[in-house]
Amino acid sequence: MVFWKRFFNPDSTSSPSLGSTGAEEFPTDDSDKGRIFFTTDRDIDLYELEELCDAVGWARRPIRKVKKAVECSFLVVTMWEVRGNRRRLVGFARATSDHAFNATVWDVVIHPNLQSKGLGKALMQYIIRKLRHYDISNITLFADPQVVDFYRRLGFVLDPEGIKGMFWYPD
Question: E strand or H helix at 25, and its extent?
């Protein structure tokens, strides 16, 4: 905790604030690349979030809907790269929940330049740890086929006990 008080000192002008809720540093091997931080602060530039999603090839979404999705989420986690006085959104995930038993993780994204460095794993471990802190025991997600193995390595399983999801789509 002392580290955070020092790093996020409001009187300090050398480091940008990432908010005061749940900030945690991810250790990196290369200090030239900047420092990586996670936070649950919801003060997000939605256009920056959409640029991140665009960078990985996701379809554009209406900003008003993205705003509503973030506002209505149970948990929002952002990952920031900090270099000097500059910060850049490089990761994001959110979860919806019934606030008692279940949560579903959505919109897990890591900037392409930082993929395959353990940041996606760290982001997922962080969000799982936060959900478990709230005593959420059933964590689900939807995954595209190309990332199923990634989630499997984190302990997620396909169709446990033969349960099949069902979907309804408007015509």
Answer: strand 24-26
Q: List the catalytic residues.
A: 151
Q: Is 25 exposed, middle or buried (0-12, 13-18, 19+ CB in 10 A)?
A: middle
State the alpha helices, DSSP H only, in 18-166. Answer: 46-55, 63-72, 119-133, 148-153
Q: Band the pLDDT of 8: cuts 50, 70, 90.
A: very low
Q: Which residues pair with residue 97 across a beta bridge?
A: 103
Q: How confident is the model at residue 165 (pLDDT cuts 50, 70, 90)?
A: confident
Cross-strand partners of 26: 36
- In whole angstroms, what separates CA 79 from the centre of its chain? 6
Q: Six-digit token pair at 35?
A: 């420092």
For every residue of 118-144, which 3-state class applies, written as one string? CHHHHHHHHHHHHHHHCCCCEEEECCC
Q: What are the tens digits of pLDDT across the range 96-132?
A: 999 999 999 999 999 999 999 999 999 999 999 999 9
* Residue 43: other Cβ atoms inside 10 A: 11
Closest CA to 132 of 107, 103, 159: 103
Cα angle vertex 68, ends 80, 94, to 5°? 40
Element (H, E) at 38: strand 35-39
